[in-house]
Amino acid sequence: MKKFALAFLLLGLLMTSCKNDDDALIAQCEIPSGINANDISFNSVSLNWNYTDASATFVVEIGLNGFTQGSGNSINTSNSSLQINNLSANTSYQVYIKANCGVNNESLWSDVYSFTTLAEPVVAEFKQNLSELNLFSGTLSDLNPSMYAFEYKLNTELFTDYAHKQRLIALPIGESMTYDGDGLPIFPDNTVIAKTFYYYNDERDHSLGKHIIETRILLKLNGEWQTGDYKWNEAATDAVLDLNGSAVPVSWIDVHGTQKSLTYQIPSNTDCFTCHNTYNIVTPIGPKLRTLNFDVNGTNQLQKLINNAHISGLDSPSSVAILPNWEDENISLEERARAYLDVNCAHCHIPGGFCELESNLDLDFSATYDDSKIFENRFTIRARMNAYIPGFSMPYIGTVSKHDEGVDLVFEYLDTL
Hints:
Blueprint: H1 2-24, E1 33-40, E2 45-50, E3 57-64, E4 73-77, E5 81-84, E6 92-100, E7 113-116, E8 136-137, E9 144-145, E10 149-152, E11 164-170, E12 177-178, E13 192-200, E14 210-221, E15 224-232, E16 239-241, E17 246-253, E18 259-266, H2 269-275, E19 277-278, E20 281-282, H3 289-292, E21 295-296, E22 299-300, H4 301-307, E23 311-312, H5 333-345, H6 369-372, H7 378-385, H8 404-414
Helix pairs in contact: 5-8
């Protein structure tokens, strides 16, 4: 009986001891959850996560997508958020986080969180190779614009020996153009404007590839525009800065199945200034708002600029005049011809243009008929547009062939005067 009482006493003591131990147990450190990235750039990320214990500290392990835990880069922090810098652009990363709630009390690792950094921003600088400007994403010859650039089109385009053109504008991150009337907007410093010239090998089947010739660049630096030109290599893997100009043999099959060929002239930097010259200041030519004011794929280009915050100070495209499409036969012959002359000739034949002292023509579309002096110069216009004669024909530079369709339009208009 005494033995039984002693055993019962020992059992009671043991149970009491276990109860006291249970009361002293520390709560298990919870696992961080709700990991999220507030801001992802091309070289950084801002992470945050949920945690209830304000006294906890954390270990964040980051590595390239698919890395083995323990081989990544570990970062200690006392906050439930962390800014990580010096990451690689356009790269996928994975993150794990665990909490430390005190001595010998760490949580398990969180579930993996993945993110991808953005592409590198466009570089507003004349590098040796076009690829270094980051204007395009993926394979360079595909001409896919960077996420920081947008493509634009002109309602009436400049003729350049039947070459196709891709036009891009890359604005500095977080900045926009400013509305300044129907002409050119005000571009912020570090804007990049690019125009790439190419020919499809066969106009009847674009899947047969294209021959990319050059990419012309305008950079706005410290309030002034600078020009440069990149000549593409034969493999179309990159283009090299070339300010001296050169000749490139080109051949293609047109929409009628006719073999065409010419020697394409890449302009020198001096040639670029000849056309982009207004009162001896380098000036863009193409992206005037009145030239962009039309629908592309069902959406007005200016409205798209407004919607994407690419332009400020403009509420509606209706506030901007429209430069007509010279191929649109639903508008008057005069409007079509004047639009063609505006885009192809007015950059030189306007007040302050390269030809101001040689001619009294003002071929800006907004000039009145009397001020344009077209009637007084109709015979000269005919003579200089009728055939390609180097040093005499118009345009003075930029083409090596006659634009039959455009010349026919202008001559038809001149016949009515």
